[in-house]
Write a structure and sequence with these properties.
Strand content: 5-15%
Structural class: alpha+beta
Oligomer: single chain
Largest sheet: 4 strands, antiparallel
Order of helices and strands: HEHHHEEHEHEEEHEEHHEHEHHH
Number of helices: 13
Distance between the termini: 59 Å
Strand order of the largest sheet: 1-2-7-4
Shape: globular
C-alpha cells in the first residue's frame, strides 16, 4: 500500500499562489495546503467547502439500530455499506481527510409562471373530470441536470488541480451520494452545517438546499470547526410532514414521500395516497425544507446546470400517466429523477389523479 503522506508543519506561502515546500522540499505546510484547496474549490464555484477528519462515527449505534428497524425500506445499499458509513477506513484504510463540498441547487419560482405555488401543498388537486390539468410537482433538486454528474465532474477538476499544488503523491476517491460514506455526517465534521430535525444538513446562513460531494484523501489536513445544532425547540418540519415520516433527527423512509415516489419499486401503501395527493409531488418532496426557518433567504444556485427545464418544476399528472417508454427516456435523460422508471411515474400520477 502507498505510504500515507503526512504534511510537514514547516513552510511559507510562495509567490504566484503556489504552495510553499517544507524544509524537506517535498511536502507543503498542511494549513497552507488546506487554504489553497479551499481557494481552488471556491474558484470551481463550490458554494461551501470544508475538511473533515476520517474517524469512527459517534453515531454507529444509532445507525445499527436504524438499520435493524428496517426503516431504510428497499434501500438495501444502506445496510450493505453500513461498515463504511460507521468508519470509512474499514473500506479505504488509507483515508485520512475528506474534502467536503456543497452546491446550492435552489432556483426561486418564476414570478411570471402560471404554475401552482411551490411553497405550499396542493390541498385538493382537481380530478380529470373537472379539470384538464392536474399539477404534479417535482422536487427542487431534480429541476436541472443530474447533480451526480455535475458534482462528480467538478470534484475531478478539484482533484486534478490540487495534485501539482500539494507536490506529494496521495490516494483519493470521489463520492457523490454514492459509496460507503455518511456524507451528511462528514459535512458536519467539515463545518458545512449541522444535521437538522428533518435529517438534512442545514447551514446557518444559507439553509439546506444543497447537494453534497466528497473527495476522500490520504492527506493529513487540519479539519474545520463544526457548527452547533441551532434547531432548538422548532418543530416546523416535523409538524408539516404530511405522512408523519419525521421524528426529531430520525426519518422513517417507509413513510417518506421522496422514498415512496423515487425508491419504492412496488405499490405505495394506500394509507399514504391521501397525504401524497395533499403534498402534490409526483417525484420527491420538499415540504420539510420549504417550512424550515433557515431557508427563508436561501442561497440561489450559480450553476447553469441546475436551472429548471421541462418537465420541472411542475408538470401535468396526465402527461406522466400516458408517457410511452420513448417519451419517458427523452424527459428523464441526464436527470436525477431518471431513477423513477416509467411505471413508477404512472403509479405516482394515478395517485395524484385519484385513480
Amino acid at each position: 500500500m502507498t505510504p500515507r503522506p503526512v504534511l510537514s508543519n514547516l513552510g511559507n506561502p510562495a509567490a504566484g499562489g503556489q504552495l510553499a515546500p517544507s524544509a524537506d522540499t517535498r511536502t507543503p505546510n498542511p494549513r497552507i495546503a488546506a487554504d489553497r484547496i479551499r481557494q481552488i474549490a471556491s474558484e470551481l464555484r463550490f458554494d461551501l467547502v470544508g475538511i473533515a477528519p476520517v474517524e469512527e462515527s459517534p453515531h454507529s449505534q444509532y445507525l445499527r439500530s436504524w438499520i435493524a428497524s428496517g426503516a431504510f425500506g428497499q434501500m438495501g445499499y444502506l445496510a450493505r455499506t453500513a461498515d463504511g458509513r460507521m468508519n470509512l477506513r474499514s473500506v479505504l484504510p488509507w483515508a485520512q481527510s475528506v474534502i467536503c463540498v456543497a452546491m446550492s441547487y435552489y432556483s426561486p419560482p418564476d414570478p411570471d409562471s402560471s404554475a401552482e405555488p411551490l411553497t405550499a401543498p396542493i390541498a385538493n388537486p382537481p380530478t380529470p373530470a373537472n379539470s384538464p390539468r392536474v399539477p404534479a410537482k417535482i422536487a427542487r433538486y431534480a429541476w436541472g441536470r443530474d447533480y451526480h454528474r455535475v458534482l462528480y465532474g467538478r470534484l475531478r477538476q478539484l482533484e486534478r488541480l490540487i495534485r501539482p499544488e500539494i507536490r506529494v503523491s496521495f490516494e483519493s476517491r470521489i463520492y457523490v451520494d454514492t459509496g460507503p460514506c455518511s456524507e451528511r455526517e462528514l459535512a458536519v465534521r467539515a463545518g458545512l452545517g449541522w444535521i437538522g430535525k428533518n435529517t438534512l444538513l442545514i447551514h446557518p446562513r444559507h439553509g439546506s438546499w444543497f447537494v453534497l460531494g466528497e473527495l476522500v484523501t490520504s492527506l493529513v489536513l487540519p479539519a474545520d470547526q463544526p457548527h452547533m445544532d441551532r434547531c432548538g425547540t422548532c418543530t416546523r418540519c416535523l409538524d408539516a410532514c404530511p405522512t408523519a415520516a419525521l421524528t426529531p433527527y430520525r426519518l422513517d423512509a417507509m413513510r417518506c414521500i421522496s422514498y415512496q415516489t423515487l425508491e419504492n419499486r412496488g405499490e405505495i401503501p394506500p394509507e399514504l395516497h391521501d397525504p401524497i395527493r395533499q403534498a402534490g409531488f409526483i417525484v420527491g418532496c420538499d415540504i420539510c425544507q420549504e417550512v424550515c426557518p433557515f431557508n427563508r433567504r436561501p442561497l440561489s444556485t450559480s450553476q447553469a446546470d441546475f436551472i429548471p427545464s421541462a418537465p420541472a418544476p411542475v408538470m401535468d399528472a396526465n402527461t406522466a400517466l400516458t408517457w410511452t417508454p420513448a417519451e419517458w427516456d427523452r424527459a428523464t435523460r441526464g436527470r436525477a429523477f431518471r431513477r423513477a422508471k416509467p411505471e413508477m411515474w404512472q403509479r405516482n400520477a394515478r395517485i395524484l389523479l385519484n385513480q
